[in-house]
Write a structure and sequence with these properties.
Blueprint lengths: L4 H17 L3 E7 L10 E6 L2 H8 L2 H10 L31 H30 L5 H27 L1 H4 L4
Antiparallel strand pairs: 1-2
Length: about 170
């Protein structure tokens, strides 16, 4: 797609507005390529149901726009669908199925348990410094946000790569 970035950006605006208008659309995010390092655009779209997602992915509007840009796509139209917390257990270019649910449960629980016990010890003194009055809702908001951030961006990517030999081992 070298040299066609502006064409692609225009196309992206068209498909974005159609996707956002589709029934059940919840969210649209674009991860743009890093200059001189990558050339891949990644779109993350969320729908309120798998049926509505499938309706969008198979819609005439989407297919027409994919056809319009297909000559500019280096690898064609590639996409993957993830449900629930499967994204925490997936790796780039992964060709295997997500781990069994009971393994996902054990791994997630074993990562959250220490965080639920340690994060308040760290976060509450900081909150008390800025807001001397205790407010359970306010405290819970920041504690849970810290835990989710750590789970998604710090712990689970490393943790799942360390134990992927067990996670993806089929019985």
């Amino acid at each position: 797609m070298k040299g066609e970035e502006s064409k692609y950006e225009d196309w992206m605006n068209q498909i974005s507005s159609l996707c956002k208008a589709a029934i059940g659309h919840l969210d649209w995010q674009v991860i743009k390529p890093i200059a001189n390092l990558t050339s891949t655009y990644t779109f993350i779209i969320r729908f309120n149901s798998e049926a509505n997602l499938n309706n969008w992915m198979n819609s005439l509007e989407r297919n027409r726009l994919i056809q319009e840009i297909s000559n500019s796509l280096e690898s064609g139209d590639q996409y993957a669908t993830r449900n629930g917390l499967d994204f925490l257990f997936s790796f780039e270019n992964q060709l295997v199925r997500p781990p069994l649910r009971w393994k996902q449960f054990l791994v997630t629980w074993s990562a959250i348990f220490p965080l639920v016990n340690l994060v308040p010890i760290i976060v509450l003194p900081i909150l008390r410094y800025f807001t001397p009055h205790e407010n359970r809702i306010f405290d819970s908001f920041f504690i849970s946000a810290s835990i989710v951030f750590l789970m998604v961006y710090v712990i689970m990517p490393k943790y799942t790569s360390w134990i992927k030999w067990w996670l993806y081992k089929q019985p």
